[in-house]
Write a structure and sequence with these properties.
Blueprint: E1 3-8, H1 16-20, E2 26-32, H2 41-48, E3 52-56, H3 59-64, H4 66-82, E4 86-91, H5 95-98, H6 102-113, E5 117-121, H7 140-143, E6 158-162, H8 173-180, E7 184-187, H9 194-198, E8 205-208, H10 214-224, E9 228-230, H11 237-251, H12 258-274, E10 278-283, H13 290-299, E11 304-310, H14 317-326, E12 331-336, H15 344-351, H16 362-380
Parallel strand pairs: 1-10, 2-3, 2-4, 4-5, 6-7, 6-8, 8-9, 10-11, 11-12
Helix pairs in contact: 2-15, 4-6, 12-16, 13-14
Length: about 375
């Protein structure tokens, strides 16, 4: 009888508040009814208690408009207590009803605190209805860079790595390649202060590490005039090699990729052989590229039975269609909402360490193979 196992792909659960926390010196102030704090905020607070505050307003505050002055006062108190470098006011669905002028409120808070302020409007009602409206007034992938201001380019060639807001794994091979070529490398969650963060506006090129952040590349090109190049690969080793060639020509460096390409091919075959006789079901809910990973593994000879996704999963339609065409027996369970057991999210977030760097480039392939190999050994034992 064939053995089977379920393997969770590497990744971090999508969550708005931890996503923003990578901005150095940031304070977040949630303004909304007490009932709205259920949206993952309690679990986020365990992980972000030094960066996240709450102002729970009443219906009387909304009707009389008193919540506006209370918001300004709360921001002033946070500034006095924590001396932030910047602040984000976070609101929820009530704004769809009361229509707050956040531009005016932002100016008032900036004048009262003397720190730069942005607003994130979250309207989850738009996620569950047929409304043709965004659930966020600005994507969080853009918002984390919105405090940057145009600046003169640094005299030394420098690049920004635009990937997960949780940070980029320092072991990614392209970091050592770039630094070996005398290039300064910057990324969110690098551990610097707000002044170091602002230096991201002085770089010459943004390197986009996943296609979901391509819009961020365009956002920064428009905002700061910084061009961008893709280094994402859709879990296609051939495509990644071509991306490295483009990057090498742009920055006048010679990426050492042939050895890495060959090593990945050999290890993929080795792990596939080790897992021979084991049927695998993947949990791709936390992965940025679940369908692309499935396509790569299926083409590599792994015995994959299917994958489960959830409402917030990033699904590449081209990869999904290709899988359905070439591997029709592969099962894709989509749009699943599976509430976790009580306290599971809280325990997970309490145990996470910050930052939460994600792997890209060839390292991303090997992180998946590490996970498969480890679970495969446990199943055999």
């Amino acid at each position: 009888m064939k053995k089977s196992c379920t393997i969770q792909l590497p990744g971090i659960p999508p969550a708005i508040f931890p996503t923003l926390a990578g901005i150095p010196g940031l304070q977040m102030l949630f303004v909304g009814p007490f009932s709205c704090t259920r949206h993952g905020i309690y679990t986020s607070m365990l992980h972000l208690q030094e960066q996240l505050s709450f102002l729970c307003i009443s219906d009387v505050d909304v009707i009389t408009g008193a919540y506006l002055e209370k918001t300004v006062e709360a921001a002033r108190e946070i500034t006095e207590a924590r001396s932030p470098s910047c602040m984000i006011i976070i609101t929820c669905c009530q704004n769809a009803i009361i229509g707050t002028d956040y531009r005016d409120l932002t100016i008032r808070i900036q004048n009262a605190t003397n720190v730069p302020v942005r607003v994130l409007e979250i309207n989850r009602l738009n996620m569950y209805t047929n409304r043709k409206c965004d659930s966020l007034n600005m994507p969080t992938d853009h918002l984390v860079y919105d405090f940057l201001i145009p600046a003169s380019k640094s005299p030394r060639t420098a690049v920004n790595l635009i990937g997960s807001p949780y940070g980029v794994d320092k072991d990614c091979e392209f970091i050592s390649m770039l630094q070996g070529g005398g290039i300064t490398v910057r990324a969110l969650c690098d551990g610097g202060d707000f002044e170091e963060y602002l230096k991201m506006a002085t770089t010459h090129l943004n390197i986009i590490l996943h296609k979901k952040y391509a819009s961020t590349g365009e956002f920064l090109k428009k905002k700061l005039g910084i061009p961008w190049l893709p280094l994402y690969n859709d879990y296609n080793p051939t495509q990644l090699a071509a991306r490295y060639s483009e990057l090498g020509r742009a920055l006048d460096i010679t990426p050492d990729i042939r050895m890495r390409e060959r090593a990945l091919l050999e290890r993929t075959q080795l792990v596939a052989d080790k897992l021979s006789g084991i049927q695998i079901v993947l949990d791709g809910g936390n992965s940025e590229s679940p369908m692309e990973i499935c396509r790569w593994l299926l083409a590599g000879g792994f015995d994959l039975a299917g994958i489960s996704l959830h409402n917030f999963s990033t699904v590449d339609l081209d990869a999904e269609q290709e899988i359905k065409a070439h591997w029709p027996a592969f099962r894709i369970d989509e749009a699943l909402y599976c509430p976790s057991e009580p306290g599971k999210d809280a325990r997970m977030l309490r145990n996470l360490e910050k930052p939460l760097p994600q792997a890209y480039g060839y390292l991303a392939f090997h992180r998946v193979l590490d996970t498969l190999e480890k679970v495969g050994e446990e199943v055999r034992v």
